């Protein structure tokens, strides 16, 4: 039988052996290779997976440590027990859903967008017959530090919902994709991943922002962004480039995501005083640090127009600033979530329209 051991290219090189070990477990379970059956040679495994023999040998060693296979001197590698099977959710509606919260959430307090989103998710799930398991980011990291697949096995999950997909999550999400585990991503889908995602209509919002700016204001806009290579910042910057041209490097301020270090307030003040922008576009949720600078500060700057994708309730900050905010349309989100949780189906990408609101 031909082995399907193709490795998802989104898996970093250091994760290839883990990904291949996952594939081998499913090969043993699905073929099925009987207990006592012989596993193909490392050379054959490497050829089918298009990896080196070193990677193939490391993957087989993982199965050896788990007691799934054993080597018999001069005879090859043999199956001694079947691996535990993941409760895959390939078809039908979800039955047991795991939600991994973002790094900024705790069991006691959720940040604004996750709080609203979780309410929509629970509302959609309550209309069906599925169970919900909520995991904090710290709990997920405990699984990730040892064997990430345990998050599925120990909780009996058939579906994973990610409220955050950063660099630490990409490899695992990619591995689960190639095993057929049903997953849903919110706000960002890093390059190389293919699970359904609910994203914001950033292009439409950027177009609306530009429609409110004169030519001079566009050229004198300060953009505040997170890592330009990572979604959603890459989405918004691409939309800006397509509609207005590439912003000057001097007018693109890259800062860390929340929770914001104290020094970011000093950097914001310095850059605003230095550039004296006609407009400020906040991609990264810095509306509250901006607000703390006060109305008098912005009056002395000439009252630049301020736009953000973050409402004033974010990060429990105090609202002291008048600005334009872009927020997702709740009805569109509810429709997408109902489709996924009640029927197990959704378009590969759902773009939520954002409506303009003045604060």
From TrEMBL:
Q: Does the keyword Membrane apply?
A: no
Provenance organism: Victivallis vadensis
List keywords of the entry alphabetically: DNA-binding, Transcription, Transcription regulation
- InterPro entries tied to this protein: Tscrpt_reg_HTH_GntR (IPR000524), WH-like_DNA-bd_sf (IPR036388), WH_DNA-bd_sf (IPR036390)
- Name listed for the protein in its UniProt record: GntR family transcriptional regulator
Q: Which residues form the HTH gntR-type domain?
A: 14-82
Give one GO molecular function term.
DNA-binding transcription factor activity
